[in-house]
């Protein structure tokens, strides 16, 4: 457990200030037989209360910082108990010495002062007036400290979980980008080998895609129109590559107000071509539709595939599923259906 960290000392100071005030005014608000016995706060009472509070604070921090961590470890349970007893006794002795040699002279109380040997042997006084009293008075702070420490640990755990989540998302993106680049560069290479005049056009499209991947999609969420533009650029490259073999029908129904986590839709479109269009030798129909309505996104794709040739969906869709778990844990539905030589995907997201 940590003692004080990152401005927590202010909360500790505030706590002890409040406790000091409570101890001071408590005699003024007494009820029953003691009601009205004390009407003012004297300087002597203020000094006594301050020293009492210091004794309680010493007991409190001793229990919280030293004893509790030992008691929580089974192997050190006996040591923790022995340390608790000896520590409370030591604090009681020091407190008793302070009362006799400091507090009483300050408040003008002159009595026969016990020597140190007499003080350490007054077990009844030490136990009843100091050990038990300090433990009872320390209980509010121990509770406060444990709650504060638990809150700190929970916040640290949340920060660690968030850092882990961000690191995993970054790793998933880093796996996606090379996968996409490998496929796209192969497309452009094929055009270059054929000396196609469309090579420069494809390079321009790829440049737009790379600009988006490298510089425009680092935020947690991006405008929907940017993701749609990415899909259109990718599909333009595929239309040039497959020519008349590809019969593409794409529909986008949305507005510019929606935002989405970047690079969620591209793996689905990539999968249509890698495990669908590329496997077919004849004309291939590809359909995709994107609709955003009342903060809900529906993205559907459909393509022909040969179950004898098509492998299971690759790393792109595996990464997508993991990204959905991290970014939309209870707000997503992603299904894959294979029927009548058609490969159909359906992604639904709550965008709010």
Overview of the structural elements:
By secondary structure, the protein is α+β, with helices and mostly antiparallel strands. The chain folds into two domains: 8-157, no CATH class; 197-350, Heat Shock Protein 90, CATH 3.30.565. It is built from nine helices and seven strands. The protein has helices at 8-25, 43-71, 77-106, 116-121, 123-193, 199-216, 224-242, 266-274, 315-327, and strands at residues 222-223, 246-253, 259-260, 284-293, 296-304, 332-339, 342-350. A five-stranded mixed sheet has the order 2-4-5-7-6, covered by helices on one side. Strand 6 and strand 7 (342-350) form a beta hairpin. Helix 1 crosses helix 2 and helix 2 crosses helix 5 (123-193). The longest helix has 71 residues, at 123-193. It is rod-shaped. The two termini are 38 Å apart. 19% of the residues are buried.
Q: Could you estimate the helical fraction of the residues in percent?
A: 55-70%
* Total helical elements: 9
Structural class: alpha+beta
CATH superfamily of the largest domain: Histidine kinase-like ATPase, C-terminal domain
CATH topology of the largest domain: Heat Shock Protein 90
Which band does the percent of strand residues land in? 5-15%
Rounded mean pLDDT score: 82
When the domains are counted, the total is: 2
Number of strands: 7
Pattern of helices and strands: HHHHHHEHEEHEEHEE
GO molecular function, one term: phosphorelay sensor kinase activity
InterPro entries: Bact_2-comp_sensor_kinase (IPR050640), Sig_transdc_His_kin_internal (IPR010559)
Keywords: Coiled coil, Kinase, Membrane, Transferase, Transmembrane, Transmembrane helix
Pfam families: His_kinase (PF06580)
